[in-house]
Amino acid sequence: MSAPRPAVNPPNVQSYCHLFYISDSQQAQIERLQALIVQHQLPIVLNTERLHDKLTQKRRQQLSQTSSVPILVLDQKDKLSWLSDGLSVAPEWDKLQRRVVSAGRKSELLLQAAKVTADSRVIDATAGFGHDSLILASTGAQVTMLEQQPLMALLLLVEQQRMSAQPNWQKLMSRLQIVNTDALSYFATLPADMTGATKAVDVVYLDPMFPEDSYQDSKTGKGAKVGKQMQALHHLAHPPTLDEEMALLNKAQAVVADNQEGRGRVIVKRPQQAPFLSQQNPDESWHNAAVRFDGYFV
């Protein structure tokens, strides 16, 4: 979840992060982090500091309250996480293994809506922690993940690198491309990109940030609770305005309109009680008790 959201730090403006690590033996991992920042041209300046005390919950809370810049933590298992309000959040793709292995249209509402196949090209324009991208890529589809926030992009790149070291994840990881950019800028590059041999886009997937209270029914107060990862994302960015929603949906529809096979579609994820994106009625919707996927077809 990133592309349409106004950022706390505008894109391409250097952001400073403080990285705490546990052991001197983690220097190699820190060097790999710095290499990813350079390779992907992330506007991040990483200041590192070794922790000499235990990273208890109280210590995490203290670090969160005293730092004026985002905090990253490299724990004893070399897992990188972002410290937000005392909570450590990370993509943690390995925890989705069972879901990814069993993913199919019967079990995943997203796949019912997107109807992607092994030869599909998908753009997840609001990648967030990347969980939906994994489900989309589990079909064999090639998925481009757009993440506007450099901090989130770094977490995704580190997670992809971590999971690529596991043999049973390598094929899935090879189908993911992570790009630190906003959706509208990326969409503007696509017509030139698709004039060559590059396959046209079949699906654009949008899961834009939404106000925290919209996950519950305004009358009954019932509905999905916002998890710690979503809470953390709310600290980085804000929901798009109506004008931004309109621009995002219109550009996404224009991208899939170039699909010569006539199967292009835009899929939008919304809380069950939320209004339609850009107040535009979808062609079809799929929903359960908590979430809704709206489809806009070309």
Describe the structure.
By secondary structure, the chain is of the alpha/beta class. The chain has two domains: 15-89, Rossmann fold (3-Layer(aba) Sandwich); 93-297, Vaccinia Virus protein VP39 (Rossmann fold). Helix content is 33%, strand content 20%. The chain has ten helices and twelve strands. The chain has helices at 27-39, 57-66, 97-102, 109-114, 131-137, 150-164, 170-174, 183-193, 228-236, 242-257, and strands at 15-21, 44-50, 71-74, 80-84, 87-89, 121-124, 142-146, 176-179, 203-206, 265-271, 284-287, 291-297. A seven-stranded mixed β-sheet has the order 8-7-6-9-10-12-11. β1 (15-21), α1 and β2 form a beta-alpha-beta unit. The longest helix has 16 residues, at 242-257. It is globular and about 60 Å long. The relative contact order is 0.16.
